[in-house]
Design brief:
By secondary structure, the chain is mainly alpha-helical. 49% of the residues lie in helices and 0% in strands. It binds heme C. The site of heme C (HEC) has 22 residues, from helix 2, helix 3 and helix 4. It comes from Massilia eburnea.
Length: 128
């Protein structure tokens, strides 16, 4: 196999994994309310599929996850900046949605702007 083909194969694998991650994060953290279809439950949990706000300004969508809103929990202590970027990039491109992805650096900067404490998983994982 030529180097070029190996490189392309690796790119495809990396791309698939990144996409699967966002999807898995959504299944674990969001689907109980917003449903795997992204359609939510009318009157209780808003649809994210076909939602204009979700496909609008990325920082405003990320702010909902970092601060919580109404009956929606605050994910700032449970999801890292990379997780938030990954799950929102999935939400913004799944079910026919067509908005640009966002990256961990943008979420990190937003945490600072909103004065939300940095993700602290490290505090609990230092016993080995
Ligand atoms: C416990 C149920 C629950 C879970 C879990 C949950 N949400 Fe929500 N979500 C809500 C509710 C309720 C609202 C409406 C909040 C409001 O505006 O009062 C909402 C609103 C939103 C909005 C704003 C939609 C709009 O049109 O304004 C986004 C974006 C969103 N959720 C994304 C997510 C993502 C991504 C996850 C997983 C990381 C998630 N939610 C997990 C209940 C939930």
């Amino acid at each position: 196999m030529s180097m070029r083909i190996i490189f392309l194969a690796l790119l495809l694998i990396a791309h698939g994994a990144a996409h699967a991650d966002g999807k898995a994060l959504f299944a674990r953290n969001c689907a109980a309310c917003h449903q795997a279809t992204g359609k939510g439950i009318p009157g209780a949990f808003p649809a994210l599929a076909g939602n204009g706000f979700v496909q609008g300004e990325a920082s405003q969508v990320a702010a909902v996850l970092l601060k919580g809103r109404g009956g929606m929990p605050d994910f700032s202590p449970t999801l890292s900046d990379a997780d938030i970027a990954e799950v929102l990039s999935f939400v913004r491109s799944a079910w026919g949605n067509q908005a640009a992805p966002l990256n961990a650096q943008e979420v990190e900067a937003l945490r600072e702007t909103l004065k939300v404490p940095a993700f602290a998983a490290g505090q609990m994982s230092n016993k080995h």
